[in-house]
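WARN no homologs supplied; continuing
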Amino acid sequence: MTSTLQARDLLMDRAQGALTGLAVGDAMGLPGDRWPHARLRSKYGWIDQLLPARTGDRTRRAGHVSIGTLEAIAVAEALRDGGGRATEDRIVERMDALGDRPRRPVHVARFAPLGIVHSSLDLDALIDDIVISAAPHHLSNAAVAAAALVAGVVTSALDAPVGATGAVFLPAHLEIGFRAAEIGLGHGSPVAAPSVIQRSLLAREIAMNAESDVSFLQHLYDVIGTTPAATEVVPAAVGLLVRGEGVPFQVATLAANLGGACTAIGALATAMAGAINGLSVLPPDPVATVRTVNGIEPGELARELAELRH
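OK structure emitted
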């Protein structure tokens, strides 16, 4: 009985870590989002805490999250309302509530909650729901693969046995992510795009071989790229995950100092790290700030999704 309760508590901690980590990683990237890496370094030096948006945008204070996190919350709510199943009607209804739909691209972060509600034993079902959860948009096969990689890492982490935490298990979780990405390539509209798997492998190599965090970030920025394209944000997130050894706030801090689409990249990287190590290792202060500033409860929502895991 004790073992069963321990496993359940761990599942809940990891689920909460995934969705809360996504929000914290997003918020950490706020001051430098869309800035070139060199400009970010020149202005801020090294970011290691939540900061407000840069001068000129007073509407976004420290802890504010981007539309990517709000999309993830919306998908999570639709999944909860659907008993753990994605339906196009519920997804569209939740996305409509966010407004500005015609001009808003699909953010990869919206698919991370699917890794909470789906077991890693049925990756095909996971990817089917990724396609549905893009509604009302239609994804390219490259975008499906990118989303599947992130959700695959999340679901693998949640399925890991008690005690299977830390950097030593990263390769196993990434392998499930790569497997999901391979399946994902068979869905969506075929496009000419680089391989998200090969780019992620390159990002992992950069992370493992860099002499310092500063040189790592520069190399990642120069070689992998940090535009909002799914084939860049996901590999960059993998690099951050590996360099930060799966420690959520360490990963979020690295993302905040990257530049480019660092809110999106930070959200993805910290969601994966949070799933691996759980909410319990995230510092409570930034978690509380993100919840209060945005009026969201990602931890509670994640618990509800974990109850519906299938």
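Residues 153 and 174 are 6 Å apart (CA to CA).
OK
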